[in-house]
UniProtKB/TrEMBL annotation:
Signal peptide start-end: none
InterPro entries, alphabetized: FAD-dep_OxRdtase, FAD/NAD-bd_sf
Gene Ontology CC annotations of this record: cytoplasm
Provenance organism: Nocardia coubleae
Molecular function GO labels: (S)-2-hydroxyglutarate dehydrogenase activity
Domain FAD dependent oxidoreductase, chain residue ranges per copy: 12-399
Record-linked Pfam families: DAO
Record-stated family: Belongs to the L2HGDH family.
Obligatory cofactor(s): FAD
Protein name, entry field: L-2-hydroxyglutarate oxidase
Alphabetical keyword list: FAD, Flavoprotein, Oxidoreductase
Xref: Gene3D superfamilies: D-Amino Acid Oxidase, subunit A, domain 2 (3.30.9.10), FAD/NAD(P)-binding domain (3.50.50.60)
Length: 407
C-alpha cells in the first residue's frame, strides 16, 4: 500500500529528470498511486530544457522500428496518447502526414523494406510512385515514397508544461535548479544528495537524458556504455517559403544508423525547418556551434566504444562534419529530394543534441534501454521517438516497480 505524504522526510517516489519522459513518469506514478508522495528533481531552472525543447516537434508513427522493439510498441501507443492529451488540454497539434522519399534505387529498396516493417508494426502506410509524389508535393522529387498519414506535429514543451501542472495538482513536488551529486541505495530507501541537501525516497526513477550514464554510474549500475552527444543542426526557411510543402518530408534512412536524416519539417508555429544532421559533439549541453566542455570531451575521447564507432562510420562522420562546416554540403543533402532550395533559403535556427548510448564494443544502441535495481529504475537510452512515446514509457517504468518494496 502506497502512503500519502512523507514519513520522517521519506518520499514514496523520487523522479530525477524534468524532460518529457521524467514528467510523464511522475504523472503516471501519481495516477497509479493516488495520495503517494512524490518529488521530481531537475538540475535546470526550467522543465524540458534539453531534448524535449530541442527537437523537430514530430508525432512519430512507429514506422521505422523492429516489431519486437520497445520503440515500435511504445511509439504507436504514444502517438495516440499524444494526440488525445493535446486535444483534451487545448495544445495545438496537426496530423499533416509524412512522406519518406526515395531518391535512387538503393533507397527505393530500403523504402520497400520499410513498407513491410510498417505493415508488421500495424502502421497505416501507402506506397506511391514518382508521378504521384510530384502531384502531391510539386517541389519534391524522388523515384517513389511512402506516405504515413498518422504522423503529426506538436510542441513537446507545451505537453511537458501541461503534464507538470497536473503533477502539481495531484500533490507532486517539482524542484528546479537541483543538482544531483550522489545516489545511495539501501535495502529500505534511496538517498539522492547534492549541494542543496538530500532527498530520501522508497523508489527512485531516473530519466536523465544527456546525463543518464553519469547518474547510472553514480548509482553503481552499468559502466559499459556512455552517452555520446550528437549535435543536430537545423536551418529555418524564409517565411515566404513556409508553404513549400504540406507534409513532413523525410529521406529514407540508413538502417545501420539510429538517425533519420535531414528532413523538411513544418512546425506547429508555422515555420518550415530543415534538419537535423548528426555531428559528434564535444559538449552534451552546448548548443552553439563549436561548443566544447572539457569533461564531456574527455568522456567521448577516452571511451573505446566511440573509437570503434568512428572507425565503423568514418565516411558518414566525415560527411556530417563537412556538411556542418560548409552550408553547400548541407544544402546538397536537402536538394536530393527538394532541388529548388538554394543557400539563401537556409536561415539560422536553434540546434538540438541527441543523447545516444554507445556500448564499449562500439554498438550504437537503437532501442530504448532501461535497467533496474531493487529500488530504482534507470532510463539509459531514450532518444527519438521518446517524446512521442513519453507516456507509454512512463507506464512501462511504473509497471516495473515491485510493490512489496514500497510498503
Amino acid at each position: 500500500m502506497i502512503s500519502g505524504g512523507t514519513h520522517d522526510g521519506v518520499y514514496d517516489f523520487c523522479v530525477i529528470g524534468g524532460g518529457i519522459v521524467g514528467v510523464a513518469t511522475a504523472h503516471r506514478l501519481l495516477s497509479a498511486y493516488p495520495g503517494a508522495s512524490l518529488v521530481l528533481i531537475e538540475k535546470e531552472h526550467s522543465l524540458g530544457a534539453h531534448q524535449t525543447g530541442h527537437n523537430s516537434g514530430v508525432i512519430h508513427s512507429g514506422i521505422y522500428y523492429p516489431p519486437d522493439s520497445l520503440k515500435a510498441r511504445l511509439c504507436r501507443a504514444g502517438a495516440q496518447w499524444t494526440k488525445e492529451f493535446a486535444a483534451a488540454n487545448d495544445i495545438p497539434f496537426e496530423v499533416c502526414g509524412k512522406l519518406l522519399v526515395a531518391t535512387d534505387s538503393t533507397e527505393h529498396a530500403r523504402m520497400l523494406d520499410l513498407y513491410e516493417r510498417s505493415i508488421a508494426n500495424g502502421v497505416e502506410v501507402e506506397a506511391i510512385d514518382a508521378a504521384e509524389l510530384s502531384r502531391r508535393e510539386p517541389g519534391i522529387r524522388g523515384v517513389g515514397a511512402l506516405f504515413v498519414p498518422a504522423t503529426g506535429i506538436i510542441d513537446y514543451a507545451k505537453v511537458t508544461a501541461a503534464l507538470a501542472a497536473q503533477v502539481q495538482d495531484m500533490g507532486g513536488r517539482i524542484m528546479l535548479g537541483t543538482i544531483v551529486e550522489s545516489i545511495v541505495e539501501t535495502d529500505s530507501a534511496v538517498t539522492v544528495s547534492g549541494p542543496g541537501g538530500a532527498v530520501v525516497a522508497k523508489t527512485l526513477v531516473v530519466c536523465a537524458g544527456l546525463q543518464a550514464d553519469r547518474l547510472a554510474r553514480m548509482a553503481g549500475i552499468r559502466n559499459d556504455f556512455r552517452i555520446v552527444p550528437f549535435r543536430g543542426e537545423y536551418y529555418r526557411l524564409p517565411a515566404e517559403r513556409a508553404g513549400l510543402v504540406r507534409t513532413l518530408i523525410y529521406p529514407v534512412p540508413d538502417p545501420a544508423l539510429p538517425f533519420l536524416g535531414v528532413h523538411l519539417s513544418p512546425t506547429i508555429d508555422g515555420d518550415l525547418t530543415v534538419g537535423p544532421n548528426a555531428v559528434l559533439g564535444l559538449a552534451r549541453e552546448g548548443y552553439r556551434k563549436g561548443s566544447v566542455n572539457g569533461r564531456d570531451a574527455l568522456d567521448v575521447l577516452r571511451f573505446p566504444g566511440v573509437h570503434r564507432v568512428a572507425r565503423t562510420h568514418l565516411r558518414t562522420g566525415v560527411r556530417e562534419l563537412r556538411n556542418s562546416l560548409f552550408k553547400r554540403g548541407y544544402l546538397a543533402e536537402c536538394r536530393r529530394y527538394c532541388p529548388e532550395l538554394g543557400t539563401a533559403d537556409l536561415l539560422p535556427h536553434r540546434a538540438g543534441i541527441r543523447a545516444q548510448a554507445v556500448l564499449r564494443d562500439g554498438t550504437l544502441v537503437h532501442d530504448f534501454l532501461i535497467e533496474r535495481t531493487p529500488r530504482s529504475i534507470h532510463v539509459l537510452n531514450a532518444p527519438s521517438p521518446a517524446a512521442t512515446s513519453a507516456m507509454p514509457i512512463a507506464r512501462y517504468l511504473v509497471d516495473q516497480i515491485q510493490l512489496p518494496a514500497n510498503k
